[in-house]
Specification:
Layout lengths: L1 E12 L5 H6 L1 E11 L2 H6 L8 H12 L7 H15 L5 E9 L9 E9 L1
Antiparallel strand pairs: 1-2, 2-3, 3-4
Helix pairs in contact: 3-4
């Protein structure tokens, strides 16, 4: 199985458990790892035979710029559910959502949720 990785898509989002996070926003990063047969695209050199980055980005943007949610678990699941439904040739998908600067009283790089889908 072949792998396509899209790393560190960055968004400002108004998601979080606390009201202040939902008002002021926070920065998020998203990693996506698709497992699919991509060799046909390697032979044909046609966008239709692979995973279209622009379509992926549109889907992720709809979730990240959509209504505010409290948990990054919710963002992760929504992104994964929609991408897995949209790209039926994908056999396995891994989605990681990182909240940069989570609201903690100590210095922290990020909090992260990872989920996987498999056919």
């Amino acid at each position: 199985m072949d792998t396509l990785t899209i790393k560190s898509l960055r968004f400002k989002g108004y998601h979080g458990y606390y009201q202040q996070e939902r008002e002021e926003g926070n920065n998020f990063e998203i990693d996506l790892t698709f497992h699919a047969d991509l060799r046909n695209a390697g032979d044909s050199d046609r966008l239709e035979d692979t995973i279209d980055y622009q379509q992926v980005l549109k889907t992720v943007e709809l979730v990240m710029k959509g209504p505010s949610v409290k948990l990054i678990e919710t963002l992760t699941k929504r992104i994964g559910d929609q991408l897995f439904e949209q790209f039926s040739d994908v056999r396995q998908l891994k989605v990681a959502v990182r909240k940069l600067n989570p609201p903690l009283n100590v210095e922290t790089a990020y909090s992260e949720i990872q989920m996987q889908w498999q056919r």
